[in-house]
């Protein structure tokens, strides 16, 4: 139940919705009950006109009885038609009154549904916003262990399922109980004795339906997990469609998707069967009860203890009693599904980021001195990646990291923007541990150009502007010029307003990388991290990107991870990392003179070229 109440908290403030919804449902219930009550005078005037010919010239005293409403109706007829009204006048007046009552009943039902829909949308928006904010605040390592498709499924599909908790809750606590009360008041006012028999039916219906929907929650959880796996495969397949087609793996992916889709469909089919069984069962029990009521009520008519018109109205009202009863049962089933989805959502929402600001963290206002790695160690779970790394990057200098793949270079660079925190030692900026600064204030001084260029399905201008969303048009254009991107941008169909497609697929690798550099230029960072920014480019693209990087590096404190060692020979210092340790460091000339790991790497690349 804790999950249930936590989901409902997202609907706050409830006062905006609960009060108006309550009033509308109350009025809907009143007019809906009166609508059935109008059957009694209509039937009586048609088959026993004398019973309705009583003239009431003064308003009756209020009593919550059928007699009071009958006298009130006669008084209304007297006021409208006068003392000399006949049967036709009564029928016309009753027909008009019935139409007005039905109109008001449905008008208030519509208003109640509008209010409930506003609450549903408001709550779902709050859940989505909160969930997305929580997800983007999580450390980078979280996304290495989770399927992106499952995360997307939780933010989209699971949140949609949660809506059942909201709408069903209001139906259970407001709408359906009031309808039941209204109908039972009408039934009791017609025949208390017959209603006692009717009340015995409802617990039976509730027990049967409760048994049917009892296992829906576990199945709903399995269904949401299966849907997450299916969305994950879909995301991966579409993101790597060239690889899928290039390896003739279309049939393999298709079979895998069909398998996941089949499992999800089987679960949904099981849930649907149980849900759909509830309504026929309750209807069967209702009709069976109605048969007994026909026999019992028929005897009462023949004994003269119940009027025929009243009994017909009773049957009409009783036929409506099972509807809110079924709706309440269905609502409990929907709530079970909503809770199952809510558990998945809240599970992710409760995941605490491991990289957070300390309570006393301060803001890095100005970058003055440099960056120091002081005995830094790091491990992914139980797998050590870095061991006792110590070096410094003085302000304005460029330090390059080289070494065999898997040595820990990229992990080392990820410690500066605090994508991860070291498990040992400390990274210091201006002599202060990075963990003593606010994360956002540190990242405000950083620019990152990675090997895998990340662009969004948006215009060229908006992708560049991500580096500084307050930049002017002129600043965006100047950043593109510095990054050697202006010419190819202007050659596109709409210039800076050209949409580059999903992940920038409309552009070449070199063009995407130059846009990434333009984004970093526009940010104008004090500290620059280049993570193998040219390793995946052809020779011509690499030349243009290198020219862009040369402009970007001027006067900045830079950490460069290089795959092609020819690009970092002019670095102020080159650090060779192998198996998580520093094995060599110095200038290009000094390292070549050592005839160690660095020289071997240079010779291997020269031989390969």
Concise account of the structure shown:
This protein has 609 residues and is an alpha/beta fold. 63% of the residues lie in helices and 10% in strands.
Characterise this structure:
It is a single chain. Helices cover 63% and strands 10% of the residues. The model has no long low-confidence stretch (mean pLDDT 79). It is α/β, with parallel strands linked by helices and 609 residues long. The chain is built from 22 helices and ten strands. The radius of gyration is 37 Å and the shape is elongated. The strands form two sheets. A six-stranded mixed β-sheet has the order 6-7-8-3-9-10. Strands 2-1-4-5 form a four-stranded antiparallel β-sheet, with no helix packed on it. Helix 2 runs antiparallel to helix 5 and helix 10 runs antiparallel to helix 12.
Q: In angstroms, what is the radius of gyration? A: 37 Å
List how many beta strands DSSP finds.
10
Mean pLDDT metric: 79
As laid out across the biggest beta sheet, the strand order is 6-7-8-3-9-10
Which descriptors apply to this entry?
22 helices, six-stranded mixed beta sheet, 609 residues, 63% helix, elongated, alpha/beta, single chain, four-stranded antiparallel beta sheet
Fold blueprint:
Layout: H1 2-9, H2 15-37, H3 39-47, H4 66-81, H5 87-137, H6 140-145, H7 148-190, H8 192-199, H9 201-213, H10 216-239, H11 241-246, H12 250-303, H13 308-349, E1 370-380, E2 383-394, E3 398-402, H14 409-414, E4 424-429, E5 432-433, H15 439-443, E6 446-450, H16 460-465, H17 473-482, H18 486-490, H19 509-523, E7 527-531, H20 539-553, E8 557-561, E9 573-578, E10 581-586, H21 588-594, H22 597-608
Parallel strand pairs: 3-8, 3-9, 6-7, 7-8
Antiparallel strand pairs: 1-2, 1-4, 4-5, 9-10
């Amino acid at each position: 139940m804790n999950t249930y109440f936590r989901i409902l908290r997202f609907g706050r403030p409830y006062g905006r919705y609960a009060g108006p919804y309550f009033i509308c449902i109350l009025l809907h219930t009143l007019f809906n009950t009166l609508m059935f009550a109008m059957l009694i005078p209509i039937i009586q005037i048609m088959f026993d006109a004398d019973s309705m010919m009583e003239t009431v010239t003064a308003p009756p005293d209020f009593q919550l009885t059928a007699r009071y409403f009958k006298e009130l109706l006669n008084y209304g007829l007297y006021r409208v038609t006068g003392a000399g009204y006949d049967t036709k006048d009564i029928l016309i007046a009753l027909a008009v009154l019935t139409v007005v009552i039905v109109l008001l009943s449905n008008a208030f039902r519509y208003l109640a549904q509008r209010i409930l829909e506003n609450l549903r949308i408001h709550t779902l928006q709050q859940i989505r916003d909160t969930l997305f904010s929580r997800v983007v605040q999580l450390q980078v390592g979280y996304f290495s262990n989770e399927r992106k498709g499952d995360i997307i499924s939780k933010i989209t599909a699971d949140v949609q399922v949660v809506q059942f908790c909201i709408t069903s809750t209001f139906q259970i606590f407001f709408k359906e109980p009031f309808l039941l009360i209204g109908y039972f008041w009408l039934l009791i006012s017609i025949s208390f004795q017959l209603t006692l028999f009717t009340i015995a039916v409802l617990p039976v219906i509730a027990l049967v339906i409760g048994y049917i929907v009892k296992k829906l929650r576990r199945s709903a959880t399995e269904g949401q997990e299966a849907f997450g796996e299916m969305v994950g495969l879909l995301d991966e397949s579409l993101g790597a469609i060239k690889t899928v087609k290039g390896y003739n793996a279309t049939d393999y992916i298709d079979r895998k998707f069909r398998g996941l889709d089949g499992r999800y469909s089987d679960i949904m089919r099981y849930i649907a069967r149980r849900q759909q069984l509830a309504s026929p069962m309750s209807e069967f029990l209702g009709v069976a009860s109605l048969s007994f009521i026909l026999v019992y009520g028929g005897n009462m008519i023949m004994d003269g203890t119940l009027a025929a018109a009243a009994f017909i109205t009773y049957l009409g009202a009783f036929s409506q009693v099972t509807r809110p009863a079924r709706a309440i049962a269905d609502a409990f089933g929907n709530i079970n599904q909503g809770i199952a989805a809510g558990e998945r959502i809240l599970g992710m929402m409760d995941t605490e980021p491991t990289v957070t600001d300390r309570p006393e963290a301060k803001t890095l206002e100005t970058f003055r001195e440099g960056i120091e790695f002081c005995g830094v160690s790091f491990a992914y779970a139980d797998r050590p990646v870095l061991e006792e790394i110590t070096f410094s990057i003085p302000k304005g200098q460029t330090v390059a990291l080289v070494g065999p793949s898997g040595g820990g270079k990229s992990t080392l660079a990820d410690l500066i923007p605090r994508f991860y925190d070291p498990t040992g030692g400390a990274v210091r900026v201006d002599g202060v541990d990075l963990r003593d600064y606010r994360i956002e204030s540190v990242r405000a001084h950083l620019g990152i150009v990675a090997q895998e260029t990340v662009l969004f399905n948006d215009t060229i201008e908006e992708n560049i502007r991500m580096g500084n969303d307050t930049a002017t048009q002129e600043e965006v254009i100047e950043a593109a010029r510095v990054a050697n991107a202006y010419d190819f941008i202007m050659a596109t169909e709409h210039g800076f307003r050209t949409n580059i497609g999903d992940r920038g697929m409309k552009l070449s690798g070199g063009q995407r990388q130059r846009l990434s550099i333009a984004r970093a230029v526009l940010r104008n960072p004090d500290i620059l991290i280049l993570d193998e920014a040219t390793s995946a480019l052809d020779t011509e693209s690499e030349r243009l990107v290198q020219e862009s990087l040369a402009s970007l590096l001027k006067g900045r404190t830079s950490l460069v991870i290089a795959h092609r060692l020819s690009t970092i020979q002019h670095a102020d210092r080159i650090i060779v990392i192998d198996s998580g340790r520093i094995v060599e460091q110095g200038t290009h000339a000094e390292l070549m003179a050592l005839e160690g790991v660095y020289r071997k790497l240079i010779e291997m690349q020269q031989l390969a070229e």
